[in-house]
Amino acid sequence: MPASRTRVGVVLAAGRSERLAGLTRNGSKALIRLGGLTLVERAVRGLLACGIEDVVVVVGHQADGVTAIVDAIAPGRVRAVHAEGWEKGNGASLAVAEPYVADEELFALVTVDHIFGAGSLEALLSAGDAAALVDERPPPQAWGEGTRVVVEGGRAIAFGKQLDAPTIDCGAFLLPAEIFRHQRLAAGSGDSSLAAAVTSFAGSQRLQVVPLPTGTWWHDVDTREDVRIAQRMLRRALVKPTDGPVSRLLNRPISTRLSVALAALRPAPDLVSVLALLLGIVAAGALAGGWGVAGGVLVHVASIVDGMDGELARLQLRERPLGAFFDGIADRLADAAILAGVGVWALDRTDGPLVVWLTVAAITGSLLSMASKDRIAALGLGGAVERGPGYALGGRDGRLLLVTIGAIAGQPLLTLIAVTLVSTVSLVLRALAVARRAT
Known about the structure:
This protein is of the alpha/beta class. The chain is about 55% helix and about 15% strand. It contains 18 helices and 13 strands. The chain has helices at about 20-25, 40-50, 65-75, 90-95, 100, 120-125, 140-145, 180-190, 195-205, 225-235, 245-260, 270-290, 290-315, 320-350, 355-380, 390, 395-410, 410-439, and strands at about 10-15, 35, 35-40, 55-60, 80, 105-110, 115, 130-135, 150, 155-160, 165-175, 210, 220. The strands form three sheets. Strands 1, 4, 5, 6, 8, 9, 10, 11 and 12 form a nine-stranded mixed sheet that branches. It has a two-stranded antiparallel sheet with strand order 2-3. It has a two-stranded antiparallel ribbon with strand order 7-13. A hairpin with a 2-residue loop joins strand 2 and strand 3.
């Protein structure tokens, strides 16, 4: 998202949730951890990841603990401000942010107890005018608890939990500084809630509704069950749409659970990339020594672990181009080492140049297949459209599964042949797909 669209974001993190008191020990809901991040850190990092330059976090209950986390996120870009009257309602908390956004044409506003999946906020932040993100098809549990929105002609006209409306707001808004005048009007009428302030604004100003984009998700964390649901949603979101069947059916069910379990330790994704590379090198050594079963198992373990670096980065909103570059280099080194290990094993059984040529072909085909996929993505040519063996086994996870099966079966020569064939098929299908798009 271009930073010029919306420069400043506000996170309301002042309240206390009585329904989560057992989990928080009467502390701040903002300190609940999901996927290794507190709710306040997840909200702030989510805005920063969308291109927001500066974030103001309004704190209240257990302010010192929340402030300590906020201050460590991005010094100079994120600040905590204390709301003295936070007990009156989240509208009163919003009022504290006025000096920090008064000169902004629009600012983003999110509440700390709402979490958003990747891409959920993009349409809202691109709206260009005052807007509210809404869910037009909320699940029953969300609809029962959510703040309902009355919509007419594409604009919101009222917000409230008791309204008779099928749409609910997602706890994310794009607002002008005019909202603060309406907050004071609502508070003067005895209602210091955010819903009252936004309803007052919508009564005199256009507040467009932005539907939650298809394929994205959000969740409101109010109860212990909400925490469990949010954890499941975060884990499921780690599966990428581009995953092939091997990754989706075999690797991700294991790796995503491991990533969620390890997230509390906050391991650096790059460290996991190094671990996957080391496992690949150890597997290569086992294969070169003819230990097929051990080597095959280690190859599959390395394949599973390799997915965890990206999962942890996405889970903790720490994705970086440099990390993706490093992961790509590590993958190529591991693949070359593993296939070289298979080649050494095959040479021990079958002397002659055929094994050498097959080893070179397998390594070259594997590297070219990965490089072609990367180039297609970098050039914006769209995902490859392979089907059959090129789709099922042409990805890195598929090739490593072939190595695992071949190694456990004690067939290094057939393994080299199989990897060469599927890499070639994958490369050809990608080339044909790009050629069709170019014509």
